[in-house]
Amino acid sequence: MLTLLLLVIFVALIFEFVNGFHDTANSIATVVATKVLTPTQAVILAAATNLVGALSGTAVAKTISSGLVDTGVVNISSEVLICALTGAIVWNLITWALGLPSSSSHALIGGLCGAALAAGHNNPDVLIWSKTAVVWTESKGLLWKVVIPMVSSPVAGFVLGILIMGGLMAIISGMNSAGGLLARISRPRWVNAVFGKAQLISAGYMGFAHGSNDAQKTMGIIALAIFTANGAGTLDQLPQWAEFLRPHGGEKDIDTWVVLTCALVMALGTSVGGWRIIKTLGHKMVKLHPINGFAAETSSATILLTAAHFGMPVSTTHSISTAIMGVGFAKNPHTLKLSVIEKIVWAWVLTIPAAGGVAWGMVNLMFLFQ
Known about the structure:
370 residues; mainly alpha; 14 helices; 74% helix
């Protein structure tokens, strides 16, 4: 059983690494597309800020570890978690190969739900659909933590992208109308220079927000595996070298070694880069200038940090993609390439059922050979 637990942790870290290079594009596509940073410089910035963001909290990790699957109804064994992670990894690699910016978050959630359903013999009660408490931060379940954010975060990204971009355009237009020095400053050359510097801040902000949300999902899976193993008595007699596995906090607390390991692995994955998806996000959807990149990154990062505060595992991909769409819409609705957007939307729609289906099939196959 200890070997299986270690295998779960290993597979979870593979997912974290894949998540890092799969979702690198989310935090650096715009800063590369606007030529403010070279790809190498952008990857270094993203890796560093992802690491800091991953160390900033554990609210999302606690949602994954205890807020989606009812462990009182189904036994989430190490084998089941391996199947859940494999479903998410397979879908991530497929969409990466196709250059589609799908959601690693939803792939993981889909894999976990699909594996749990199969382990519970398709009993819907294994999934926590909705548990509402007095305050929002204590609410649990797929409805509050997944479904509502899955719909609201892309809408918020699109609207906030329009508002921020529209506001910046209005300010520049007002400066141009004022004449004199203000008019000269509002010329494209000066605007690009100013927002080229400002985008360094917004890109770092985006990287931090990405780490604060995405890295925590794997922390939650590892914590869930450890809590389950501890409840089953697997950790009662650990060898000395494995004592670090024993939970040192409360039932839902995430140990420091889990946080540090996941943060470092995501930063390592981020450093590898994901150039296929960067090309889709940064170049194919709409032509971006520094001011557009600043608006999109600021919009998306704000949504991600808000979601992380409330423990909602939202999609970085959804928020940045729709923020870019919103920025493009504010510039000129006709500049958006609808054929590319349509492919991205289909990837969003299919992610949870596809990853869940792979995990569900693997668990049933495992049962068949037991």
